[in-house]
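In response to the reviewer comment on reproducibility (Comment 2.3), we provide here a single inverse folding case reported in full, input and output, so that an independent group could reproduce the run without further information from us. The structure tokens appear first.
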């Protein structure tokens, strides 16, 4: 199998893609697919795209046989994408593979048409998406049911946690804020002297480096996590899904306050999240922090669940099972 690495976008969560790629490359089953560095490759990419636009396939088929095929002994092409990244995939589109697969984060409704066009144009055989609802909706729009749900995972060894008595950040809201909830708790937490970290300006990172991010989570008692369907419904629509933020918080031994997507409750077999009490959100946080030790068993249970069932190793094995079962 050949894995395409690298990306053409600057998504803030590209480190999540890198985590999954590193897990896959740690196995002997997959090697990196580097882009060939020769002029003829670029020439034939351009030729292919022109001929495909014109519908002239026979000429291209004849021309392609004169191009040295750098991946001819690799029958399966795989790519992990944070949103559709055609530029990343395009150079390999001219080659023949027995099987093509992609793992797609952020498969939101407004991109469904583009996703369908992509998998049809590039003859993708398997598309793994991180949201269960996206999988069901996308399969309704294509004749062959090629979409499969593989939830997001994590590499726990990439993270850290402090002892509970040494955690100095009371409440943390990483990334996109739930503005309505934030406005209800910010003054209350400040009045009580709690340490509450959140995005001061849109797009401004709380922790500037990866190491700062890992250490910040490790020091946190309560991590606020809600799905994008609540914070950005214009993008996500009704699709609520478990993101890596939940898993990052769990392996850092934070208590999660927020909302658990249904698919997450199904995956864990229980609700691992303390659901927000919107009638008295500030009072709820205060009560939790004053009696934090009573929540440690839930935090430890969540931590063990992630180690056992929600790593990228688990997800990679699930994907291999799908390939294996459907090839029989």
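Designed residues, in position order:
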């Amino acid at each position: 199998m050949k894995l395409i690495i690298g990306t053409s976008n600057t998504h803030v969560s590209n480190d999540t893609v890198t985590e999954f790629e590193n897990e896959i490359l740690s196995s002997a089953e997959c090697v990196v697919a580097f882009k060939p560095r020769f002029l003829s490759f670029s020439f034939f990419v351009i030729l292919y795209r022109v001929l495909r636009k014109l519908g002239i396939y026979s000429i291209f088929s004849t021309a392609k046989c004169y191009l040295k095929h750098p991946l001819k002994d690799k029958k399966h092409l795989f790519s992990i994408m944070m949103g559709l990244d055609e530029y990343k995939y395009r150079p390999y589109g001219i080659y023949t593979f027995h099987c093509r697969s992609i793992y797609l984060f952020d498969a939101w409704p407004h991109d469904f048409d583009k996703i369908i066009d992509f998998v049809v144009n590039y003859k993708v055989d398997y598309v793994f998406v991180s949201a269960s609802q996206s999988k069901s909706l996308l399969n309704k729009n294509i004749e062959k049911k090629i979409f499969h749900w593989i939830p997001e995972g994590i590499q726990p060894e990439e993270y850290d946690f402090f002892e509970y008595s040494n955690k100095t950040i009371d409440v943390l809201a990483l990334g996109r804020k739930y503005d309505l909830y934030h406005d209800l708790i910010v003054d209350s937490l400040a009045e009580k002297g709690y340490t509450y970290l959140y995005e001061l300006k849109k797009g401004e990172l709380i922790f500037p480096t990866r190491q700062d991010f890992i250490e910040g989570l490790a020091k946190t008692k309560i991590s606020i996590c809600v799905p994008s369907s609540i914070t950005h419904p214009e993008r996500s629509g009704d699709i609520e899904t478990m993101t890596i933020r939940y898993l990052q918080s769990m392996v850092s031994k934070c208590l999660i306050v927020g909302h658990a997507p249904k698919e997450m409750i199904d995956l864990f077999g229980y609700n691992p999240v303390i659901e927000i009490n919107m009638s008295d959100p500030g009072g709820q946080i205060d009560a939790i922090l004053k009696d934090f030790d009573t929540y440690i068993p839930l935090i430890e249970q969540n931590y063990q669940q992630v180690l056992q069932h929600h790593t990228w190793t688990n997800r990679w094995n699930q994907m291999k099972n799908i390939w294996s079962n459907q090839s029989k």
